[in-house]
């Protein structure tokens, strides 16, 4: 098996995104949520994800917009975000090794946590949000 290298360019981003979402689509927990939401628009979604990660990791500013609003009303729980993160980490670790690969995992973890808390906040109308 060849030694893994770091994420370096748009082709690496595309491989990451395509591999990750290929796994997501087949996953029994999160696959149905993604497939229901995205429907027949996977090509457009993948293109948007290429631009998102290209902007985040390569600092090539090709993405504009706000990533949270499309997720605001998804029927997801903490387990969905945990599974998303498991698949993302597994995908990164299987393809790449290096500073940008680690940055991708950190950014994904932070985004998953923020999205979960924001979804919960909107779901509860802010009630009991900060109580344990």
Automatic annotation (TrEMBL):
It holds the Pfam family Bac_globin. InterPro entries: Globin-like_sf, Globin/Proto, Hemoglobin_trunc. The keyword Methyltransferase does not apply. Gene3D superfamilies: Globins. It comes from the Bacteria. Keywords: Heme, Iron, Metal-binding, Transport. This is Group III truncated hemoglobin.
